[in-house]
Amino acid sequence: MNKERYQILMTEYLNGDITPEHEAELKAYLEQKEEGKSELFELKVLNDQLGQVPIPEPSEQMSVNFYAMLEEHKQAEKTALKWSNRLKNWWASLNYRRLAYNLSYGLMGILIGGLGMYSLQGTGSKDNKNVVITKKNDEQWADVKKQLARLEAANKEVMLTLIKEKSASERLRAVNLTSNLSDVDNRIIDALLTTLNTDSNVNVRLTTVEALSQFTKHPKVRTGLIKSIAQQDSPLVQIALVDIMIDLQEKRSVKALQDLLKKQDLNEAVKGRVKQGIQVLL
Amino acid sequence: MDAISDNGLMLKVKDGDVDKLGLLFERYNKSLFGFFYRMTHNAKTSEDLVQNVFLRILKYKHTFTGEGKFTTWMYHLARNVNVDHHKKQNRMGYKDDLSEWENRLPDEGGTESQINQQEEIQLLNAAMAKLPAEKREILVLSRYQGLKYKEISQLMNCSEGAVKVRIHRALTDLKKIYKKLENNQAL
């Protein structure tokens, strides 16, 4: 019997799943080999001992953390779905027009290019025609840009009005309006941060976190989000803020997160997430 | 029967019914915890690693085909989580969690035979800690997690015969380390 065959049969024997034929083969081999017998005995003792090594029970916290993670995953999927819907809406409304203008602009460019080539071979009077077309096109484009800017400005005003409404659904609408904005100014940032820190409705605050997360290129938004950590009492909003800090790799938030951990009534799932966040950020 | 319903649950998770993952967690959290605990000897770390496995199940749910056993796929992820954990520990210059375990003394009290048994277990844990990770892993999977040779061979991408040979070698090495520690203790 070669060495590997012997090792295979020994494992089967020790694991208690050896077939009668294999057992007979092993026994016949061991009959001729004294050291094999003692090895078998020693390994059997060790193998049995392995079965006696106790193992502690996992803590309740493991389940709590798991279900918090599952909940978070579901929320994230919902948000992703919401985003894809928003993207579709945005595409369908605003950009549809912009795309149409872009296309016509592009086509016009090709046409002008073509005419230009033609004019090189032609007379000077054709050059004048091209200049007229290009000018017309630029004017059209400037007009589109003006209209878009007007639309965005109007959106901002509506948002700033709605966000002061008594009804939570109106305030939610106001916050959601920011998803159509290409950028925000100080007035919008202030309004969003005030809502985040003072709104009585958790859904509004949670949506505001999401809205602000689009504009984190503004230092004021980043600082405002860090400061807000200390002011939130809803676990959902706290977790959303921690997640943003992790996404942004915002190391300045570590102090605020450490302070949050000191809160006595802090939710266990939040505690776990905050600890995880601090570890990642440090 | 379990394997079929495990796969059924996992396919539902794959289709977006992620709440079904809760049932799989209830079935396997303890055995996964056992796997990581045998590998790291640190309860807190093991709980975190179990969480990581379920996170990866969610992340890679689209790769589950339902053709093999769910547990084989789950242990495949668990092994990767374990490898990543040790890489991270090494990268960050942490001491292996096991070094603490080796120095732990058995509790005082109890009868002489209980103390002897505690000492034996302690010695065995210390020997396991000194065993190279890949050998410790194959013993944990076969001896504690109850995985079949076929499942281990799929996990380790080798033949069933090779699995048996590796188990024997790991056990023989464990015995050598155990004896050495026993002799040192007697001195």
What can you tell me about this protein's structure?
The complex is a heterodimer of chains A (282) and B (187). Chain A has helices at 3-15, 20-31, 34-50, 60-121, 124-162, 168-177, 186-198, 202-212, 219-228, 235-248, 254-261, 268-281. In chain A, 79% of the residues lie in helices and 0% in strands. The mean pLDDT of chain A is 81. With 282 residues, chain A is mostly helical. Chain A is elongated, with a radius of gyration of 35 Å. Chain A has twelve helices and no strands. With 187 residues, chain B is an all-alpha fold. In chain B, helix 2 packs across helix 3 (43-59), helix 4 packs across helix 8 and helix 6 packs across helix 9. The longest helix of chain B has 27 residues, at 160-186. Chain B is elongated, with a radius of gyration of 18 Å.
Instruction: Determine the strand fraction of chain A and express it as a percent band.
Output: under 5%
Name the poorly predicted regions of chain B. Answer: 96-108
Question: Gap between N and C termini of chain A, in Å?
Answer: 58 Å
Percent of residues in helices of chain A comes to over 70%
Largest sheet geometry of chain B: none
How much β-strand is present in the residues of chain B? under 5%
Q: Rg of chain A to the nearest angstrom?
A: 35 Å
Largest interface: A-B, 35 and 40 residues
- Helices and strands of chain A: which structural class? mainly alpha
Strand tally of chain B: 0
Alpha-carbon distance between the two ends of chain B: 53 Å
The number of E-state strands of chain A comes to 0
User: Unreliable runs of chain A, pLDDT <50, ≥5 residues?
Assistant: none
User: How confident overall, as mean pLDDT of chain B?
Assistant: 85
SSE topology string of chain A: HHHHHHHHHHHH
Shape of chain B: elongated
Largest sheet of chain A: none
Number of helices of chain B: 9
Query: What is the share of helical residues of chain B?
Result: over 70%
